[in-house]
Amino acid sequence: MIEIRLFEAQDAAQIAQLFHETVREINVHDYSSKQVRAWAPDDIYFRNWVEVCSSRFTYVADDEGAIAGFGELEPNGHIDCFYCHKNYQRCGVGRQIYRAIEAKAVELSVSRLFTEASITAKSFFQRMGFSVVKEQEVTHRGETFINYAMEKLL
Fold it and tell me: Which residues belong to any copy of the N-acetyltransferase domain (predicted)?
């Protein structure tokens, strides 16, 4: 049974690994290997996961101790990281995390959710009711990526 709960500091190592593996093994279908290495560098702790996840409303999908996915909501309605483990793709985990994020946004009286969705995540966010505002090119660690500015009015 998957439980959606808020991030705890001891989740950081699993979240870092989940992020790294998902980008390297799932997003590589839509981006080049050079792009995914820039996005998810070999040093999986390039980001201070505890600090960042604790500073937002980070929801994790906990499958009896194994983290199946996570998503971060900032108080202004921005959804930053949103990833499902490679073994939990297309089985409803993302939808459960998203529902928790949207419920928190409503509780915070946020009127608009917005994100920068990868090519890989674009269709998921569309299924959740988001619209594409624009396609954009972003540069990260020397690599240029296509992603989509998307939003949903609540």
Answer: 2-154
Range of the domain at 76: 3-114
Is residue 127 assigned to a domain? no
Residues 6+ apart with CB under 8 A from 147: 116, 117, 118, 119, 135, 136, 138
36 in any annotated domain: yes
Q: Are 98 and 123 in contact (CB under 8 A)?
A: no
Looking at every residue in the chain, the average pLDDT score rounds to 95
pTM above 0.90, yes or no: yes
Query: What's the total number of domains in the chain?
Result: 1
Total H helices, total E strands in the chain? 5, 7
Using 50, 70 and 90 to split pLDDT, how confident is the model at 67? very high
Tokens of 12: 């950081």
Contact at 8 Å (CB) between 132 and 149?
yes
Q: How many CA atoms, within 13 angstroms, populate the side-chain half-sphere of residue 5?
A: 13
**CATH number for 57:** 3.40.630.30
